[in-house]
Amino acid sequence: MNGNLRKNEERSGLLFVLPQIIGLILFILLPLIIAIYLCFCEWDFISAPEWVGLANFKAVFGFDGDIFAKTLENTGVFLLGVIPLTMFLALGLALLANQHLPFLEFYKSALFMPMVTSSVAIAMVWYWLFAPDIGLINFMIEQFQVEGPGWLSDPKWARVAIIIMTAWLKTGYYFIVFLAGLKGISRTYYEAAELDGASAFQRFIHITMPQLSPVTFFVFVMLVIDVFNMFSEAYVLTRGGPMYSTYTLIMYIYTEAMHFFNLGKASVASIVLVLFAGTVSGLQFYLSKKWVNYDT
Predict the structure, then answer these.
(1) Predicted confidence (pLDDT) per residue in 24-43, tens digit
(2) What DSSP line would sit under 87-148, residue for residue?
(3) Cα–chain-centroid distance for residue 292?
(4) From the CB of residue 119, how many other CB atoms can be counted at a distance below 10 Å?
(5) Contact in structure between 161 and 237 (CB atoms under 8 Å)
(6) Whole-angstrom Cα distance, residue 250 to residue 228?
(7) Cβ–Cβ contacts within 10 Å for residue 252, how many?
(8) Other C-beta atoms within 10 Å of 68: how many?
(9) For 219-264, how does the pLDDT look when each residue is reduced to its tens digit (9 = 90+)?
(10) Which of 20, 40, 161, 167 could bond 86 through an S-S bridge, CB–CB 3.0 to 4.6 Å?
């Protein structure tokens, strides 16, 4: 009887996980295997794939070497710019909202609104904000008798514009995540610290940050994924320019696959993206053992 019950439980468990297993095979493992195969082929969506060996790797790292290196550099710049700015804004807003402010539900909705709005529409609004002649940002700067920068025409400022817009776009979601994490910290820790005479800064450093470390780690990992997947923000705002200063890996893959119908080069770039993202994620999880606290 116990044996039959155990078998029934195993079958039920297998049925529950079967959709996830099928999805993993069909939408992750199979496309990854196909992408690896296409790295060594030339394919234009129409004719049959033709084996070309390492020609695609030579094209990406050789002929397109400067452009591809630029995409990797841009990805690194966006990682260093978007992640700390977004985390700082999201955590700061969450700390404010955790003080029982009036109209808190309105603030939550307003800050989360960009996450449910089309990123293309948001990018168009920011395009007009950054426009050199009629843009609101430069208009406000010029009121102080200072000439506004070429947000979308100067390579350095174009990167800054993308970082600002992306951080603004992502802050609302991670604000909610941080606020949920803050609500989950027991008040007894703070009451005991207050009785011991700890200042607000000491309570933040020794209680809030350690207790919030799992949430912080989650936000950090998700933001890394968001940056690696950046496309519509830069594509609508700058088309990857000027001088490829905002050209991202996803944009390179999209251009090679959908504009030039070169699936081989796009597959090489995709595998590089997987390796790059996998390495960064693995490093994150390894280092998390040293600072993430899961004790409650």
Answers:
(1) 899 889 999 999 999 999 98
(2) HHHHHHHHHHHTT--TTHHHHHHHHHGGGGS-HHHHHHHHHHHH-TTT-HHHHHHHTTT-PP
(3) 20
(4) 18
(5) yes
(6) 8
(7) 26
(8) 22
(9) 999 999 999 988 888 888 888 888 899 999 999 999 999 888 899 9
(10) 167
